[in-house]
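Minutes, methods subgroup
Present: GH (chair), OT, SY

1. OT presented the first of two proteins processed in the latest run. Sequence and structure tokens recorded below as shown on screen.
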Amino acid sequence: MAQRRSAKRPDAVSGIVDDWARERPELDTTPLEVLARLHRSYLQYQSRMTSQLDAHGLSVAGFDVLTALRRSGAPYRLTAGQLAASGLISSAGVTLRLDRLEKDGLLVRERDAEDRRVVYSRLTEAGLKKIDEVFAAHLENERRMLGGLSPAERRQLGGLLSKLERSIVESDEAVTSNETVEAGPNPSRAHGRG
């Protein structure tokens, strides 16, 4: 019953779109229908995820490191470079995250037996137990958040979000390509005026 009620009630973005339609009717505000809702949904998601991780004594950054190590499979170890390349972790903050997790006893650093320059971060038993517990709770939290969508809607939305990400990346490539074409040879320089 709660799902039907909330589906009928206009959201904040509807009000924003209505305001712009009144104030600037010549503008096409349809991007707000998608991206403003996506942004607001992300903020709601982030708040709930952060709160849940805090309850387990983890930051989002620490969680990302632990999940990357866990996903790598036994012996659950990666170099800092591999962690940064895992997709969710920026190279800038890896060392600080590793220091914190090591201090908390959730991972240890080990030098490679053959190349002492290579340092791995490896989950400890406590780290493995912690991430298995926290990740299961994380997925349950996400299931609750998606409770208003049917399985078919979740699959459809997942596919659309994947397509949206590609569209955003390709929009950057299109801008770069257009800038290169537009820059072309500079006629003013060709005539000695540049």
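2. SY then presented the second protein from the same run.
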Amino acid sequence: MLTAWTSPLSVDAKLRQQLRGQLKDLQRQFGITTVYVTHDQDEALSMSDRIAVLNKGRIEQVGTPHEIYVRSATEFVCTFIGDVNRLTPQLVKRLAAAPGSELKPDAVTYLRTERVTIVPDEAGASAYTIGGTIKERSYQGTSSTYSVDCGDNGMLRTIMREDDTDYRTGDWVTLSLHPDHLLQYPDGDQASPGSGLQGTGHQAAEESDGQAVLR
């Protein structure tokens, strides 16, 4: 049996979460395959066993939520699902020039916000570090999102658990970036589904859609 649902509109956040749980309970109870169509990326990731990401009527990628998020096949999927930083060409070239790096210096490069980490000093960092000044802090209760001005290397955003941080606007911080978390795509990949180069892993075009299939 195949059942199709579309995501509810104009529902407050807590009720929406409750409805998600109820839909998953019904799906498990009756053992049905369900197609859930939504523009809400968090909804698709949390409710699905498999996701199909559509762009202008074309399927960009089909996979598990983890595959879609961590190993985004195309630039569109990468930017559509979750929150990302687009690294400046200057920073990409700097990282690509590091000893042992396998990064492509001319590729479009992204890094998910939660993959950027503020560390006390370079001793606790991964392969790449970059310094910057906190320009903005957005408090979300259990976590805070920081916008860090890294000068010529651009602005990077990072999300940190609130109990792990005590940073304020104007503080100088060291950011740690791990090469395995960088997602790279050839220039112009937005128009070329399926052409992602590499990656271990928000804004959507108006014509795009997110389709989630639950099994």
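Chair's summary of item 2: Confidence is low (pLDDT under 50) at residues 191-215.
Next meeting: continue with the remaining queue.
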